[in-house]
Amino acid sequence: MAQEAILIIDDHALFRSGIVSMLSTALDRVLTRDCASLHEALAVDDVVPTVILLDIQLPGTSGLEGMSLLQRRWPAARIVVVSALDLPDTVSAALAQGASAFLSKTDRPDRMMAVLREMLDRLPVAPPVGAVACPSLTPRQAEVLILVGRGLSNKMIGRNLGLSEHTVRGHVQGLLSVLGVTRRAEAVFKAQQLGLIR
User: Fold this and answer.
1) Degrees (nearest 5) of the Cα angle 72, 78, 80?
2) Nearest residue to 105 via CA among 82, 79, 80
3) To which H or E segment does residue 55 belong?
4) Please, are residues 76 and 125 in contact by the beta-carbon 8 Å criterion?
5) What tens digit of pLDDT does each residue of 86-113 get?
6) Residue 23 carries which DSSP code?
7) Using CB atoms within 10 A as the burial measure, which of 20, 30, 54, 189 is most buried?
8) What architecture does CATH give domain 5-121?
9) Cα(124)–Cα(131) distance, rounded to whole angstroms?
10) pLDDT at 34 over 90
11) What's 30's DSSP letter?
12) Which segments of the chain belong to CATH 3.40.50.2300?
């Protein structure tokens, strides 16, 4: 049986280091990995997270936008959204997207630990039988796909991700090839069908 692991995705280094320190003391048998962005998280290949602690406000692709990508990559992982934006609409949106729980950054550490222990104690959920095979996208292609889905031009995608327009064009061509389509609109439609974007 694989060792349980918690993946922390948050762009604030101080917050991440504090959570890692707390978890290493309280859950010494659970592996922890921390990443500053969705792109970095999707590139993790040395652990399969049991629980993902996900911030909503991330550089590039936000936590809510990227949740479906995390669910595709690790279908059995439980996603716990952690955010300072704890308004009712935000909580509802996170849970509607598939989050197992929502934590406010103003919550006490003992509440976070209680939620994490509950998530770790749950039995794993098997992926649905007959699920459609998902194309294998690189982390960067996954980020570009989300922004294409939002209708952004290559130039605007480049500004969002800190890439040149030429580089974005290459990623878009790669996406079209992987998805087996010839146009951006077709790529968005197929990606929505596969659950890669909403």
Assistant:
1) 115
2) 82
3) strand 51-55
4) yes
5) 777 777 778 777 788 888 888 888 888 8
6) H
7) 54
8) 3-Layer(aba) Sandwich (3.40)
9) 17
10) yes
11) S
12) 5-121
